[in-house]
Amino acid sequence: MSCPVFVGSAFVAQYPTGGGNFWVPLQYLLGLRALGVDAYWLELLWTRGDAARDRQFIDAFRGHVERLGVADRAILVFFPDCSRDDPPGRAEYFGATATDFAARARDALLLNLAASVTPPLRVGFARTALFDLDPGPFQIWAREYDLGVGGHDVYLTIGQNLGAPDSPVPLDDVAWQRVWPAVHLPAWPDRPAEAGGGYTTVTQWWTNQYAFLDGETYDCNKRPGFLEVLDVPRRTGLAIELAANVHPGETDDRALLAANGWHLVDPEVVAGTPEAFRRYVQGSRGEFSAAKPAYVRARPGWVSDRTVCYLATGRPCVVQATGAERHLPPSAGLRFFRSPDEAVDALAAVEADYPAAARAARALAEDVFATRVVIPRVLAAAGV
User: Fold this and answer.
1) Counting beta carbons within 10 angstroms of the beta carbon of residue 345, is it exposed (0 to 12), middle (13 to 18) or buried (19 or more)?
2) Which pLDDT value is given to residue 248?
3) Which position among 226, 278, 283, 317 has the lowest Cβ density within 10 Å, counted as fewest Cβ atoms?
4) What is the CATH number of the domain that holds 243?
5) DSSP H or E stretch at residue 103
6) Do 127 and 77 share a structural domain?
């Protein structure tokens, strides 16, 4: 393929201790390169108003891409004089000069992850594809805010169930093309589970985000989802660990989790770098996770970019249903629940034949979520 592809993101450098976030654009970059595509990662960072902190964020990002061997493919553009909502001002480029970047972008496709690249920064690309990673809430927010819908050539989403009769989210005649989230299998080798590992997940406990549609509230915080399955560790007797940023001052939540058998750890400690996140997933027995209530209500068919990493490394996953189950083949490696009772039953089914579930998890990653499967469909949908 002769057309260069830029994977555009603005949610990695601004969150230097989010090791899992780092993997989202990285999977696509690695997968594109493996397919012979001239691919780059474009990361945008706006000032936080603190020069020393800004420099820490820049250095952290550059250090990560160097350690993972993609520094020659990662371009960081920092805007020191403005915020994301301002017109772009003076920019500092890392990984390429402004002239080199413009020359590479001139004939390129931009995969604009989560509408990261704002309109003034998109004009230099030959073709742009908006890539929605937050289906359901994104379409609702896009009715109120400028999230790029109407300003791109192509619209991609991981919301496999958007538009289905049981998904109430209006699509407003946008031609969303559906693809699965991707995982680059060579970066996530299949490994036997380590002795003593428990079920884990990595998440944000509280973000204070909501979406509103037709008088209904779509809660985008994970806390209510986990409280629905609060008693699952106690009922199953399994070791279940939650790597979530539950603030030390949230003593009631911490007490509730502890009383019901949850082991709570700090995500910055166990998964604060890309390498630590991968080790944490590989050291787990599997994933057990709730979804945002917004995903449960919207039924968009969301599957987490984190879950596909667990699957790739041969870790069975038990996660809350969001409509994706309608579009996947039945698998002992990925089980969905709609209630605490179903969660308990799903974990019991995995434990009844764990080796088979682990093999099925890896097989599902190979057949459905692998970059070698997903990315050709992304490129075809984008018309390149």
Assistant:
1) middle
2) 85
3) 283
4) 3.40.50.2000
5) helix 98-105
6) yes
Q: What is the mean pLDDT of residues 242-262?
A: 94
The answer to whether residues 166 and 52 belong to one domain is yes
238 with 351, same domain? Answer: yes
Residue for token pair 């944490």: 280
CA separation for the pair 104, 236 (Å, rounded): 54
Helix (H) or strand (E) holding 319, with range, is: strand 317-320
**Torsional sign, CA 46, 48, 49, 51:** negative
Q: Burial of 12 by CB count in 10 Å (0-12 exposed, 13-18 middle, 19+ buried)? A: buried
One domain, residues 268 and 360: yes
pLDDT by residue (tens digit) across 28-80? 999 999 999 999 999 999 998 889 999 999 999 999 999 999 999 999 999 99
2 has pLDDT over 80: no
Q: Which of 296, 303, 28 is nearest to 159 (CA)?
A: 303
49 and 79 both lie in a single domain: yes
DSSP 349-381: HHHHTHHHHHHHHHHHIIIIIBHHHHHHHHHHH
Helix (H) or strand (E) holding 8: strand 5-9
Q: Which of 141, 154, 148, 102 is nearest to 125 (CA)?
A: 102
| Total of domains in the chain | 2
Indicate whether 224 pLDDT > 80: yes
Are 334 and 225 within one domain?
Answer: yes
Q: E strands, 150-209, where?
A: 154-157, 176-178, 199-203
Question: Between β-strands 92-94 and 176-178, what pairing exists: parallel, antiparallel or unpaired?
Answer: unpaired
Identify whether residues 273 and 306 lie together within a single domain.
Answer: yes
What's the domain range around 10?
5-180+371-381
What are the tokens at 127?
A: 């073709």
pLDDT at site 1? 53
Q: Return all residues near 65 (Cβ < 8 A) that are at least 6 apart.
A: 41, 71, 73, 74, 95
User: Is the CB of residue 228 less than 8 Å from the CB of residue 202?
Assistant: no
Both tokens assigned to 311? 């699957």
How confident is the prediction for the chain on average, in pLDDT?
Answer: 96
CATH of the domain at 161: 3.40.50
CA 135 – CA 220 distance, rounded (Å): 11
